[in-house]
Amino acid sequence: MISVVLAAHNEEGFIAHTLGYLLDGLRARGREFEIIVAENGSTDGTRAEADGVASGSPEVRVLSLPDPDYGAALRAGLLAARGEAVVNFDVDYYDLDFLDRALARLDEPDRPAIVVGSKRQEGSVDNRAWPRRLVTFGFTTILHVGFGLSVSDTHGMKAMRREAVRTLAENCKFRTDLFDTELVIRSERSGLRVVDLPVEVTETRPSRTPILKRAARSLVGLARMRVALWRER
User: Fold this and answer.
1) How far apart are the C-alpha atoms of 190 and 57, rounded to whole Å?
2) Which residues pair with 39 in a beta bridge?
3) Shortest CA distance to 176 belongs to which of 41, 14, 62?
4) For a Cys staple, 73 with which of 40, 121, 153, 157, CB 3.0–4.6 Å?
């Protein structure tokens, strides 16, 4: 089974369209699947809209977390998943071609635990505005230098072998923007294989968090993560 996890915060007007597209595409592929909507702290009709789709689509499950926290939503969806493979998408950033390529990669003999859809790997196309690309470059540079990360990205779309990463996800200490980064770092440090695939990135709407505010928050979080992982060692 494939589990697709969607973190959703204030996605009224978007979530039903995304679910409809994914349901059609996944059903056409003929494999057993589920879609987990991890709604978190929404103040609009996101939960009701997702529940409406789920009521007519047995493949869809809706979780609801009380606080707006993207990383906590991803973690909850991963831990609730039943599929052997878990794929993370965003409500406004999903790609079934990546899903096909990533699942094929998970089945190859070297058995990677995580396949990251990288915005920075050779062959990727990043159509975002230059400040966003610059922040991504700075973020990944810090990860390579400060954490020894080998892959070229940690955010965005990912496919994972659930049983390989489940315990690591349970032990992750950080949420918000850094849960998936911590999970990738912990996976590499545990000796699991993490690989990346090139993707095309196009923003379908402006970022909801000002880029400077998000960058500052991420820098503080990375400093705290560096200390936490050093103490564990």
Assistant:
1) 38
2) 8, 64
3) 41
4) 40
What is the token pair recorded at 113?
Answer: 């635990």
Q: What is the CATH number of the domain that holds 136?
A: 3.90.550.10
105 exposed, middle or buried (CB, 10 Å; 0-12, 13-18, 19+)? middle
Residue 209 confidence (pLDDT): 67
Structure tokens at 143: 């990860």
Residue 109 CB-density burial (10 A; 0-12 exposed, 13-18 middle, 19+ buried)? exposed
Q: How does pLDDT run across 33-73, given as a tens digit for each residue?
A: 999 999 999 999 999 999 999 999 999 999 999 999 999 99
Domain, as residue range, for 135: 2-232
Answer left, alpha or beta for residue 195, where phi above 0 means left and psi between -120 and 50 means alpha: beta
Q: What is the pTM of this model?
A: 0.92
Residues 6+ apart with CB under 8 A from 32: 1, 2
Domains in the chain: how many in total? 1
Q: Could you list the beta-strand ranges (E) of the chain.
A: 2-8, 33-40, 60-65, 85-90, 114-118, 125-126, 158-161, 194-198, 200-201
